[in-house]
Batch of 2 targets.
Target 1
Amino acid sequence: MNVKRRAIESIVVACLMVAICAIADAAETAKAKVLSVAEATTVAEATDTDRKTDLTTNGTAGVVVRLEQLKSDALESIELTTVSVERSRTALMATAEEAEPEETLTEEEIAWQNRLMAEVEEFLYVRAAGDGEAAIVGKLYKGAVAEIVEAGDTWTHITSGNVDGYVNNDYCVFGQEALAYAKANFDTVAKIQADGLRVRSEANAESAVITAVYTGATLIVDKDTPATEEWVAVKYGERTAYVSAEYVTTEQDLSVGITIEEEQAAIAKAKAEEEARNAAQVTEVTVVQNQSVAASVDEVILLAAIIQCEAGNECYEGQVAVGAVVMNRVRSGRYPNSIYDVIYQPGQFTPAGQGMLSRVIANGPKASCVQAAQEALNGTDNTGGATSFRRAATGHAGLVIGNHVFF
């Protein structure tokens, strides 16, 4: 602000100096004119001393009138110039007083001045040229941020990841608006920069330690809990925890664009991995034929219903495996010895305690689950005697069938 004010004051002084010079020049000009007329008058008087003239037309009276007119013009010119300078000075000073200080942007806001995001539900096509008929070269999925290469009225040239192309402005938000959109719709994450960083229950070094995290790990920042200079509030399970601000960096959890080739390669890789996993699961399964168990129609429906609740969307082998776990418990001697009591044992099968099982029974389980229940009752066990299972994503050791691991 001081620099800006000094600049304006310098302009005012410069203008005043120009005006003063103009006034001086005008005064000198007027003075010269007056002197010239006076000299002419003197010469005329000396030359025509003995000649009488008509004073009202060609004589001294005419010269005097002209002299007075020149004086008046010169003074008026000086007064007008002075008024003009004074007005200019007043206007410049008023401008200096009324000027508002420039808005100061944060480093984050400056970084976002040349960025955009796609405001879409799924993704926005990136095209080879600024034309809706141009070839598609990539996609900006929801949450992807791009750098602006050249902005246009309808299409903007961007880069994001390995994508280089054009996006339609109608589906984008830019600059500070994009930053606000990112903060409102996507998580902020804290990236851990130290090994063994303690996650604490309160924002102080004396509070209880919940766990320790290591370099490269990320925790979601709890936006509802204000951060301090020393601590960052993060989400840990269902609770709010705290990590030292000194050992983390925070940023928006955003992605970048993906080219069509990259997307196709990722799809092919995922498909190949799934096929390999399914093939491995089939070869790993060893089917054991146990003694069959007699069951009533109600027990068959009950077993089929729990199979549907736990593995209704799994492959058929996974459905048989869930039924086998129930029957292995019935036979084990460490669990209740009936299908009903095993399924409804407290703390064991979650759907039984949440009402989901009752709804499936009321509507009738689907055919594949009824068939899997019959196989399990007939003694088929493809789990190797397992009495428990979890989601395979937990990483628990055991036999993986479908999306579950049995142990």
Target 2
Amino acid sequence: MTKTLFEKIWDKHVIRTIDGGPSVLYIDKHFIHEVTSPQAFRGLEKRGQKVFRPKQIVATADHNVPTVDQHLPIKDELSRLQVQQLIENCRNNDIELYGLGHPFQGIVHVIGPELGITQPGMTIVCGDSHTSTHGAFGTIAFGIGTSEVEMVMGTQCLLQAKPKLMRINIEGTLNRGVLSKDIILYIISRISASGATGYFVEYAGSAIRGLSMEARMTICNMSIEMGAKGGMIAPDDITFAYLKGRPFAPQGEAWTKALAAWKELYSDPGAAFDMEIHIDAKDIEPMITYGTNPGMGIAVTGQIPSLQEVDDKERPSFEKSLQYMGLEPGSRMKGKKVDYVFIGSCTNSRIEDLRMVASFVKGKQKASDVEVWIVPGSKQVEKQATEEGIDKVFEAAGFHLRQPGCSACLGMNEDKIPAGKYCISTSNRNFEGRQGPNARTLLASPLTAALAAITGEVGDVREFI
């Protein structure tokens, strides 16, 4: 019987299926952070229940942490309380915590892969929607709510209905200046921010197979932004080479055994999907968003749709979005002035992203009226950037290399974009107030963001590389 990649992993993790209902799914790895875990721990305590398998949980502090002066007490009272509560909960339950000051601390979806904790064939959950990032390794990885965090803590299992399956095939060679962020923004703009609702997506095709692991993670990270339960890519030699030798990856005989199993993780020829989409890589250009959901994206050389191009039922929300963003229907984004540039988040804060930006801006100076924040995804990335002299390149360009954390991806910490200001961001969401009350977010790739940092406006990187 032919099976998809998803079905191969799902079937191995189903303990039993309730007639007419969900399945009891075993969870291999559970990541937690300071925001969605306190209530779950409290729920267990109220029932007098202990964490069932603490060794399968990994914790870090990322959402609410400051990205400057991390050695000092956290100023914000709520953030300080949440981080302290995480420390106490992990200590009381014998859970590994990579907290502030630890060499492995960082954004939860950055540290899992770089430490080799994330491995093909796993089921992975976290109380964070962008858990889909780990799907780049051929895993079933998805975000869960606080009550589900408690369920996994208490049982190492989760009640889940099997989703529908979609495959997005991207064939051909990418255009110059087009990155994985452009690929996923293009897909979302094409199928909408709800176009994959109810589906788990597998990305396939020659353009996907040619990507690095960092680039694949960017694509899987934003699967949730088109409504999908998660996204995944079949593991291959690029995956195996990335994992080999990482701190928590299998070693010696265990590696050989794991590798043999991982090589069976692919969708069989003829395996059935509920929906398939085919995209030609040459149709994808550098992208930029203009609205307040990730599906409102266009090529940087394109125009915002006119009112006549928008369906009648969509028009009120379209107009409301443009009013919030201070933009006009039918206008162009190229040349639009920006005030802030944020390069970071679990979407684009890995060493490959920082290397790419440093290579582009070396010898250049940022625009005098633009504030630039570069936030590495982990202490490991920060260490590599320092060892490679990337920090010096940024300093010379007038950029500010901060310390690891979710930072300006979301307005839960001190790194907020001021009201009314435009920020070109490598993060994953552009909702109203996402980066701070009344902040205006333009999502783009690290290269497009780097160009905006230098020129002070939205531009086409193909004119500069």
